[in-house]
Design brief:
By secondary structure, this protein is α+β, with helices and mostly antiparallel strands. Helices cover 44% and strands 24% of the residues. It is built from 7 helices and 8 strands. A 5-stranded antiparallel sheet has the order 4-3-2-1-5. The chain has a 3-stranded antiparallel sheet with strand order 6-8-7. Helix 2 packs across helix 6 and helix 6 packs across helix 7. The mean pLDDT is 88.
Length: 156
Amino acid sequence: MQTVRDADGDTYLLVKRSAESSRVRDPATGAERYVDNDELRVVDGESPLATAASGIPASVRKAMRAVHDDRSLGLLAVVVDEGPLPVIELLDATDLCESDLHGTVTELRAAGLIDEVDVDGRRGYVATDDASEAIALLRGGSEADAAAGRDRAEGG
């Protein structure tokens, strides 16, 4: 498999090359089509696996890298759905001990999925736009649905 670009600059995965045309896959949709070989050029130095991953929305890729199990995914979903939440409420709402909660929150913060905020004078956490979008998409929404939800949350 190779990463290729067509004459319009669109990036694809080369699935199969024949004498006159090649079958390529759009990483965003998975749809395959045939393109004349003269319209394609190989992109050197770009991993075909990275190209395949590029079809997944960036927010979902970010969440997948940061979330290691159902508990951390659940914590992210709770912060998206109910946040901003003070730490004490997160401890009460979850089955995580303080140290596990701290570790998971640290990973989610490092990934840019939650931010520390003041909630009524107490330390708490709020979901970032990327986290809200990722959870919406993982729940089966479209990117447009996720953007509309973000706009509503921001008062737009």
